[in-house]
TrEMBL record:
This is DoxX family protein. The keyword Endoplasmic reticulum does not apply. InterPro entries: DoxX. Pfam families: DoxX. Keywords: Membrane, Transmembrane, Transmembrane helix.
Length: 139
């Protein structure tokens, strides 16, 4: 173990829960507003949007829950990172939209970049013992 989280377990738990709940909500939003999300994805030129939107909804849901509860953290954080690496430039291409949409797309792009940073941090910490975790899949 290279890094030890002693003394900051509660802060790390709060970070996990906050981060995971946001991603879980995003996944639920993909699933409950699938028609709108599919239409938006189709407008962005995403192939098989009818399959990919629900699939990414479950990916976000599982990844967010995994991070929040500390189950399979490498898989969970990796799933989130992959989603964000693909979705961010394809769905929020602020440089390629009309001027009246650029600010909104840039905001979503930057939000996703920040979330990607968090996912990568949790991925890097995947081999460390997580305090207050269910412990499934931890190394």
């Amino acid at each position: 173990m290279i890094l030890e989280l002693t003394g900051s377990g509660e802060a790390f738990l709060l970070a996990r829960v906050l981060f995971g709940v946001i991603l879980t909500f995003m996944g639920l939003n993909h699933l409950t507003n699938a028609e709108d999300m599919i239409g938006y994805s189709q407008a962005k030129g995403i192939p098989a949007a009818g399959v990919l939107v629900p699939a990414t909804g479950f990916q976000l849901l599982a990844g967010g829950l995994g991070i929040a509860i500390g189950a399979f953290p490498v898989v969970a954080a990796g799933a989130i990172a992959v989603f964000l690496l693909v979705a961010t430039p394809t769905m929020h291409d602020f440089w390629a939209v009309p001027e009246d949409q650029q600010q909104s797309e840039m905001t979503n792009f930057l939000k996703n970049v920040a979330l990607l940073g968090g996912a990568l941090a949790f991925l890097a910490l995947g081999s460390v013992e997580w305090p207050y975790a269910v412990g499934v899949g931890l190394f």
